[in-house]
Amino acid sequence: MTIPFAESTPGQRIAEFTSSIITPQILQAYAEASGDSNPLHLDKSFAQKAGFDDVIVHGMLGMALLGRLLTAHFAPQDIRNFSARFVSTIPVGKQIHCYAEVAEQSPQGLLLNLYAQPLGSEKTAIRGQARISVLAPK
Amino acid sequence: MTTPTYIGYQHPVFQVEVTAQSLGDFNLAIAAAPEPGQEHLAPPTYMKVIEGEHGSSRAMLEALNIELRRVLHVEQSFEYFLPIRVGDVLEVVRSISDHYTKKDGTMEFLVIESRISRTDQQLVGCSEQILLLRNI
Fold it and tell me: For the packed helices A24-34 and B20-29, what is the interaxial angle rounded to 10 degrees?
């Protein structure tokens, strides 16, 4: 999306995308690349013993997708902070819709609210926030 | 009997070198396509990869005798002071900064704080990870 950030208003959605289907292969690749080999994300029988129907998506993979909303529009060095609450787990096999809304705008920069929601679900799985130090997009 | 507190537990300090291979693999895994000229800069959640190197998260849980299947990652935050770049050698300090219960002790939480610095001691960033320890 190409909305000029200087003209954005609180509540306005300024960026969004929908991921591909998060397959077990993607979870495996994320585990290898990130070093997070928790079997909750890789081993169905372990996940079932832990109380889930199947493996679940790494919360940090979901947060990394939200991070793509940031790096698609801002230089990495302009991101001051970034936080996320993993409100509900994301089952494997879903696409994830990620979007960013303006929470607050000041001369110092932008505060964004970020959301990740599995397609077909009513519930937001990850709620995030990020502060960007400058208004000029890269 | 009081519940033992893990506050103050510190994982041994370790160093990590940021390589183009590791960064490239991570970008591929999250389907990120850095802009030309930005490939040497880490995306925002890569700090978690740095702090988790050498299986440090699992080692901390094992040292505290916490079963992995009880653990759910419920919150994560990062503060950025300097960009993380290919070639950086970073020092990681991780400790348990808080340990508390909610809802009459039925929900137990652990907070792991990480501080990441360059070898010249310049602080690159900090993070905080909150884990829910479920009673299963």
Answer: 160
